[in-house]
Amino acid sequence: MKYLLYIFLFLPVFVFCQTSVSENFTSIDTEAAHPFRLHYDLGKPDAEMKMPDDLEEISGLSLTPDESKLIAVQDEDGEVFFINKRTGEVERDYNFHKEGDYEGVEMVGPSVFIVKSNGKIYELHNVGEDHQQTIKYTTALNKEFDVEGLGYDAKNKRLLLACKEVGEEGDEPILEKSIYAFDLMTRTLIEKPVYVLRLSDFLEYLEKNTHLHRHEKMQQHFAEDPDDFKFSASAIAVHPRTGDIYALSSKGKMLGVMSEAGKILHIEKLDKEIHPQPEGLCFEKNGTMYISNEAKNGKDAVIYRFDYLP
Question: Which of 96, 128, 209, 296 has the fewest CB atoms lying closer than 10 Å?
Fold first, then answer.
């Protein structure tokens, strides 16, 4: 009888431990069985909007805070365009500065920010009104960095500036590219990069993920020249639902996704027939994605809409 009493006393503990261990293993197995999933079919746009001649060189894309309009710049004229996001029609356009290589645009609250390839940032107030004002910020970046992407990181109240180059000439191999941040609280550039894209990280990711669509093409692309990292971010944006960082590279026609911590989560090879020169990227709060392509090889400049796939 005494032994039976011991068995009943310890049985609940044994069952509890077994249940806990089982649940832990289930959790781990579930996580392993659900790797990163891209919630878009980049080969099948849900909408296509052809751009007018003034936007053949469309180089940056954003949305108004109420998401009623798309905003774009092009890399020749100091002009900002407000576009109907359903028809692609340019409804308004305003000059803000002289001609230049303008590469990215973001609207944050009432302010429109535009970045030039030499790292200068222009902040526009009262766009289109009689008292429109343009404020210029000269950062530590210059034309040697070749800034191409501008994205808004709402969580950290900053703008992300993606560079195509390393900022200095020399004989050393170019094996990494930097992403800097412009602090919107102080209106100053943070001195050190907040993210660094490295060739070694891309190669390691491809080595571990051989199942990727067009995997061999991507491996060949990065192996062609081991002294040159052929991923040059032409656009950057923070995903509103996940916080992941999305970066387009016109060179190699790719989309790279990394976590807030900077870990590579996914690399997607784009179809060059659909994306001949991807230069702009932005998201609606519900996850809807827009990608703009400059005119190239007889193809019109376009903005594509990609709906978020649950």
Answer: 128
